[in-house]
Amino acid sequence: MDKLKALAVFRRVVELGSFTAAADDLNLSKAAISKNINELEEYLQSPLINRTTRKLHITENGQLYYNQVCNILDNLKHADLSVIEASHTLKGSLKISVPMSLGLIEINPIICAFMDKHPELSVEVVMSDQYIDLIEQGVDIAIRGGAELNNSSLRSRKLVEMKRVLCASPSYLDRTLPLTAPDDLTHHNCLIYSFSSSARRWIFRNPDQNQINEVELTQSRYVVNSGIALRQAAILGQGIALLPDIFVRDQLNTGELVEILPEWHVEKHSLFVIYPYHKEQSQKIRAFIDFVVEHFKNQ
């Protein structure tokens, strides 16, 4: 028995649910498919697939074996690729998921610079602030803000902690009540980022005085699912925004926006690069991650 071939056959039979479909997919005869499955079951001394005239049913042992086989075959494939890629120019493709606003402001230029460095590599970029399942969507790398991962099928590496800034336009501040403490925000129109896990609850800390102040926002006339739109609304005098400093650095320098309550700090927003664990040996993925890490290290 060719063990590796038998494992590949078993995987495709389970995935396609048919000996005939697996035979077509692998360019083998149906008899060869049956022979591989029979030899594998005989070797393991356990039925893996129950056959009926109409349908195949994977056994409990078969399901357990299938999960392990997928891991083995995927790891073997990526081990091969890591050697092939290491000895050649980076080629092929990468599918990268990034948040929409951060992607436009910061990440897309990094991706373009990486492509300049590796001209034989093509990149598909998926920009969305919504959660994307990397495995289901076939994504190689995602850049996301948030907490540490609790998904064992993924790996992550922290890129940077981004300070968040409370800010508004001079025109808004000139025509509204003064702000001397976080509680004053309840009398202002605060601009809300709808995808935030704490969209209407902002927590401030004053390290000098060892104080914590939690503010529930009720005077919110503007809610949006885009950081860029939130920044634009703040510039146009619609209210007060809480944004990563990377979003508003230029506007603070030009005076279009003014930082409010700088002595009060909001929890920093961590940015991670995330990838499926079985792809961590890919030279393309490692090269891109190192490139992004180096970019943020030099900022």
UniProtKB/TrEMBL annotation:
The keyword Transcription applies. Gene3D superfamilies: 3.40.190.290, Winged helix-like DNA-binding domain superfamily/Winged helix DNA-binding domain (1.10.10.10). The keyword Transport does not apply. Transmembrane segments: none annotated. Keywords: DNA-binding, Transcription, Transcription regulation. It comes from the Bacteria. Residues 1-59 form the HTH lysR-type domain. PANTHER family: HTH-TYPE TRANSCRIPTIONAL ACTIVATOR TTDR-RELATED (PTHR30537:SF5), HTH-TYPE TRANSCRIPTIONAL REGULATOR (PTHR30537). Belongs to the LysR transcriptional regulatory family. This is LysR family transcriptional regulator. It comes from Litoribrevibacter euphylliae.
